[in-house]
From TrEMBL:
Residues 45-112 form the F-box domain. CDD domains: F-box_SF. Residues 1-29 are annotated as: Disordered. SUPFAM superfamilies: F-box domain. This is F-box domain-containing protein.
């Protein structure tokens, strides 16, 4: 008969004491809280939350798009250098200890930003759309933008989808349909999202093709939590997914046209009855009537004129 090599555990007798728990020994500068978790008792992490918040208010942070009057003013104040400095500071603080992470991680991932001038995960600065347009081999830059967007979306969805409240991104045509699909999936998870700005950097594909792909991906999507939307002449189908939007910024980008000033597809904007504030940025007046008819209940109207002098504008238009 073959003997078993496994040893059997001896049952504990009724009069034996249960095994004692292993307690963590506090190191120098640490104390145990009410549940036994070791926390720092000295230095910056030991300060009250109110003082830490006050200290962080002196670090220049990104401009809140919900606090400025117009998209143009927001772009004027937006700084890639300042944003990179703010993000690196909060990232370092959130990696100090668990208490600092709980405090600063929600602020770090409140905005999801991908635009020219920001540093990606590799440390390289993302180029502006004008640099991409002047570059012969655009594939490298196109990939950088979309990979950085997917990276940030993955971080927020894994850690806490409730962190994200602001999304300000520029995306390219690299793997366009899968990237838009992943963005739409994450938008449905971000229950506290208030603002989204989606701009498309067009390089090869015709604008009408990118718009058609966007429509097909977003056909059955709804994001009622979004209150402010900023789109361009390709990403405008996103408006139909935001029934709760109260403020809309629309930019007609000349780089999206194929021949002169005319858009090669019909600008079939969805009817947005809830929009109260409308901001238009035009290089020309070609579709002003079509756009304004999609927002019949607007009470505040902002127009930014681009590439057209004021004396050349017929106010009757």
């Amino acid at each position: 008969m073959r003997s078993s090599s496994k040893s059997l555990k001896r049952p504990r007798r009724s009069n034996e004491a249960p095994p004692s728990k292993v307690h963590q020994v506090p190191k120098e500068g640490q104390v145990a809280d009410s549940v036994g978790t070791l926390v720092n008792a000295n230095g910056l992490p030991a300060l009250p939350v109110e003082l830490l918040t006050e200290i962080m208010s002196y670090i220049p942070g990104p401009v809140d798009p919900l606090s400025v009057k117009s998209r143009t003013a927001f772009l004027t104040y937006r700084s890639g250098y300042g944003h990179n400095l703010w993000r690196n500071t909060l990232l370092s603080l959130s990696q100090t200890c668990r208490r600092m992470r709980r405090l600063f991680e929600p602020q770090l991932w409140k905005p999801i930003d991908v635009w020219g001038g920001l540093k990606g995960n590799s440390g390289e600065v993302l180029p502006s759309r004008w640099v991409i347009a002047a570059t012969y081999d655009k594939r490298k830059f196109e990939k950088q933008f979309n990979e950085e967007l997917i990276r940030q979306l993955e971080i927020v969805t894994v850690r806490n989808p409730g962190y994200s409240q602001i999304i300000d991104v520029e995306i390219t045509e690299f793997s366009f349909k899968p990237v838009i699909g992943e963005l739409a999936r994450c938008l449905a998870l971000f229950s506290k999202l208030q603002f989204i700005s989606l701009y498309i950097i067009k390089t090869k594909r015709k604008a009408v093709m990118s718009t058609s792909l966007l429509k097909s991906v977003l056909a059955k999507c709804t994001f009622p939590q979004i209150r402010s939307v900023s789109v361009d002449s390709i990403s405008y189908p996103l408006l139909g997914c935001c029934p709760g939007a109260r403020s809309v910024s629309f930019k007609y980008d000349l780089s999206h046209t194929e021949y002169g000033y005319r858009y090669e597809g019909d600008l079939d904007l969805p009817l947005c009855l809830g929009v109260e504030k409308l901001e238009l940025t035009f290089p020309f007046i070609g579709y002003a009537e079509d756009i304004t008819s999609a927002f019949p209940n607007v009470s505040e109207f902002v127009i930014n004129w681009e590439r057209r002098p004021l004396h050349d504008i017929n106010m009757a238009e």
